């Protein structure tokens, strides 16, 4: 009988938590890994992170988990995150150098209530205005 497996990524504000689950009539945690990254203080304005740190953490946790489960075939991959919904990439799938990504707790972003329901649009406009 074929078993189904899911690799789930939680890109949090302090690190990437990655879990491998077996999917049957229940969801069973098989393995997990964590890779932490830092928050970058931006004066009194708030905090930002480097999207490359998120990518490296995802690569590291995936390699750690999959090394212990060689030959396993994934049926699905899921992602969740509390802060980013839009990460811009270039033609080579490399995150462009927009300095760092402002987190939701960033003071400059917190005062823009008209955009609170369209966060990705505001982030795109923020990037274009400040880094393009």
Task: Record keyword descriptors for this entry.
single chain, 132 residues, alpha+beta, Nucleotidyltransferase, domain 5, 4-stranded mixed β-sheet, 3-stranded antiparallel β-sheet, 3 helices, 7 strands, 32% strand
Describe the structure.
This protein has 3 helices and 7 strands; from the N terminus they run βββββαββαα. With 132 residues, the chain is an alpha+beta fold. It has a single domain, classed as Nucleotidyltransferase, domain 5 (2-Layer Sandwich), CATH 3.30.420.
Order of helices and strands: EEEEEHEEHH
Overall structural class, as computed from helix and strand content, comes to alpha+beta
Fill in the CATH topology: Nucleotidyltransferase, domain 5
Q: Helix content range of the residues, please? A: 25-40%
Annotated CATH homologous superfamily: ATPase, nucleotide binding domain
Q: Name the strands of the widest sheet in spatial order.
A: 3-2-1-6
Give the number of DSSP strands: 7
Assign the CATH class.
Alpha Beta
Cα gyration radius (Å): 17 Å
Strand content: 25-35%
Please tell me the CATH architecture by its name: 2-Layer Sandwich
Distance between the termini: 52 Å
Task: Tell me the number of structural domains.
Answer: 1
Q: What number is the mean pLDDT?
A: 78
Spans where pLDDT lies below 50 across 5 or more residues: 113-117
Task: Choose one word for the global shape.
Answer: elongated
Main beta sheet:
4 strands, mixed
Number of helices: 3
